[in-house]
Amino acid sequence: MNPSWLWAVLAGVATAVGGFALGIAGARRLARSGLARAERLAEQMTVDATRQAESIVRAAGLEAEKTLAAQRIELEREMSGARDALRRKIHDADASETALAKRLEVLDRKEAVLGERSLALDTKQRVLEERLKEASRLIAEENARLERIAGVRKEDAKRMLLKNLEDEAHVDASRRAREIREEAERWAQQESKKIIALAIQRYAAEQCVETTVAVVGLASDEMKGRIIGRDGRNIRSFEKETGVDVVIDDTPGAVLISSFDPVRREVARLAMEKLVQDGRIHPGRIEEIVAEVRASVDAGVRESGERAL
Predict the structure, then answer these.
(1) Tally of CB atoms within 10 A around 270
(2) Would strands 213-217 and 245-247 be described as parallel, antiparallel, or unpaired?
(3) CA separation for the pair 267, 155 (Å, rounded)
(4) 165 vs 131: CA distance, rounded Å
(5) In degrees rounded to 5, what are phi and psi of residue 258?
(6) Contact between 259 and 243 (Cβ < 8 Å)
(7) pTM of the predicted model over 0.70
């Protein structure tokens, strides 16, 4: 083998090995440099992410505080309104209780007056009985005197005198009894009306509504305006024809018919339902429908009464 060629080969191998070593060293330096940059970039991203997260948290906290403050203000406003409404209700209840107490006091005084009048009436009745006894005694004396003067038999004179005096006493007693009865009836009627009115006021509101109010359903609240009519002429005509009170308030889809007379209330309820279904609501139509319904209800009541009899 040629020594020069061998040396050339060895030189090439050495050169290649040196280049490979230099390449590995350069690659390691580049890798370490990239790793450092990556570490710095990661640290910077971590710092930025931390700052951004803190900013988001602060913003969220401020927004939550604002929302909480707004909700607290709204809640306080609602609670204030509720407290005011409760105070008004308590005030109204106190006023109603005071008015009822005054009415009860007046009624107690009137009951006392009525009791005094009843005692006076009893006294007058006792006086009348005493006078009747006195009249009987006088009649006996008069009979004896007449018997002595006229020479009439005692039995005949007694019979005639008793008949005359009985007729007169009956007339006087009847007149006085009628006066007493009429006076008692006048006072009893007045006091009974007041007692009934007070009993109605004391009665449970639910039961009162159930026995005095009927509800008529409406398809829409627009029908309320048609029931009222221009300047209220329809509702006035309906109340006049039926003798009930029509209450149109904020109750959705319904009107109330109020009356203590159950027959009138039923006639008004059926008539209102027919008018609402028909849609033609005016005074002439109201009068026609009410007349038809009243005739139908009267016939039904008569038929039920005949069956019961």
Answers:
(1) 19
(2) unpaired
(3) 70
(4) 13
(5) -120, 130
(6) yes
(7) no
**For tokens 């209450």, what's the residue?**
247
DSSP output for the chain: --HHHHHHHHHHHHHHHHHHHHHHHHHHHHHHHHHHHHHHHHHHHHHHHHHHHHHHHHHHHHHHHHHHHHHHHHHHHHHHHHHHHHHHHHHHHHHHHHHHHHHHHHHHHHHHHHHHHHHHHHHHHHHHHHHHHHHHHHHHHHHHHHHHHH---HHHHHHHHHHHHHHHHHHHHHHHHHHHHHHHHHHHHHHHHHHHHHHHHHS-HHHHHHHHEEEEE-S-THHHHHHH-GGGHHHHHHHHHH--EEE--S-TTEEEEE-S-HHHHHHHHHHHHHHHHH---SHHHHHHHHHHHHHHHHHHHHHHHHHH-
Alpha-carbon span 183 to 173, nearest angstrom? 15
- Rounded to whole angstroms, the Cα distance separating 136 from 138 reads 5
Q: List, for residues 151-169, the tens digit of each pLDDT value.
A: 656 666 567 767 777 777 7
State the CB neighbour count (10 A cutoff) for residue 145: 11
Measured distance CA(249)–CA(224) in Å, rounded: 9
Chain segment 37-63, per-residue pLDDT in tens: 777 777 787 777 778 767 776 776 688
Place of tokens 């007349």: 291
Give the tokens for residue 85: 């409404």
